[in-house]
Write a structure and sequence with these properties.
- The structure is a single chain.
- By secondary structure, the chain is mainly α.
- The protein has one domain (3-12, 21-75, 99-185).
- 83% of the residues lie in helices and 0% in strands.
- It is globular, with a radius of gyration of 18 Å.
C-alpha cells in the first residue's frame, strides 16, 4: 500500500475524528467528573471498538450489518438506547446534585477505570456509523486487489492513531482545567448539559438510515 493512500486516508479520517460527537462529549464528562485516568480509559475503549469494527469489515460482518435492515435497526436502537441511558444517568446525577470530588486514589480505582473503558467501548461498538464509514471509505482508497486484511487493519490503525492523538490531547487539556471543574456546582452543570446532549445524540442515532 502506497504512502499516498495512507496520507489521503488520514486526511479524510481526521475530519471525522475532530468533528463534534459522542466521543468528545464522553471525554469531557469523564475527565471533569472522574479525572484523567478515566479519560484515558475511555480512549482505550474507543480503540478496542474500532478494531472490533475493522474485524467486522475483514470478515464481511459489517456488510451484513448494513445490508440487513433488521440487524441494522436492532444495533442502531441498542446504541441509541445506550447513549440516552448515559444522558439520563447524567441528568439524574445533576438533579440529585450527586457530585463528589474524588481523590487521586479514587480516580485510579480499578472499578472506575473499568467502567470508563466500557463506556468508551460501548459508545462506539454499538454505533453503526463507524462500520458504515469503513465500508464507504475503504473502497475509495483500496483497489479490490489490495482489499486484504493487512491493508484494512493498516487503515484502521491510522484511524486509531488519529483518535488516540486527538482524544488523549483532549484528556490532557481538560485535566489542566480540573481545578475549575472540581466544585460540585460546576460538575452538576456539566452533567446536566452533557446529559441533554447525549440524549440528543441518541435520538439522532435512532433516526439514522442505512
Amino acid at each position: 500500500m502506497d504512502l499516498s493512500i495512507i496520507l489521503s486516508f488520514a486526511l479524510v479520517a481526521s475530519l471525522l475524528v475532530i468533528s463534534p460527537g459522542p466521543n468528545g462529549l464522553l471525554i469531557t464528562k469523564t475527565v471533569a467528573t472522574d479525572g484523567k485516568a478515566a479519560g484515558f480509559a475511555n480512549v482505550l475503549g474507543f480503540v478496542t471498538a474500532f478494531y472490533i469494527q475493522g474485524t467486522m469489515v475483514v470478515f464481511g460482518l459489517a456488510v451484513l450489518l448494513v445490508q440487513s435492515a433488521a440487524l441494522f435497526t436492532m444495533v442502531k436502537i441498542v446504541g441509541a438506547a445506550y447513549l440516552c441511558w448515559i444522558g439520563f444517568k447524567a441528568l439524574k446525577d445533576a438533579w440529585r446534585n450527586k457530585s463528589v470530588v474524588k481523590t487521586e486514589q479514587q480516580t485510579k480505582s480499578k472499578a472506575l477505570l473499568r467502567y470508563a473503558y466500557l463506556e468508551g467501548l460501548l459508545t462506539n461498538a454499538l454505533n453503526p456509523k463507524t462500520s458504515m464509514f469503513y465500508l464507504a471509505i475503504f473502497p475509495q482508497f483500496l483497489p479490490i486487489e489490495q482489499m486484504t486484511a493487512a491493508n484494512v487493519y493498516s487503515l484502521v490503525t491510522v484511524h486509531v492513531m488519529l483518535n488516540s492523538l486527538w482524544f488523549c490531547g483532549m484528556v490532557l487539556v481538560l485535566g489542566k482545567l480540573k481545578a475549575l471543574t472540581s466544585s460540585g456546582r460546576v460538575q452538576r452543570w456539566i452533567k446536566g448539559v452533557t446529559g441533554f446532549v447525549f440524549i440528543g445524540f441518541g435520538l439522532k442515532l435512532a433516526t439514522l438510515r442505512n
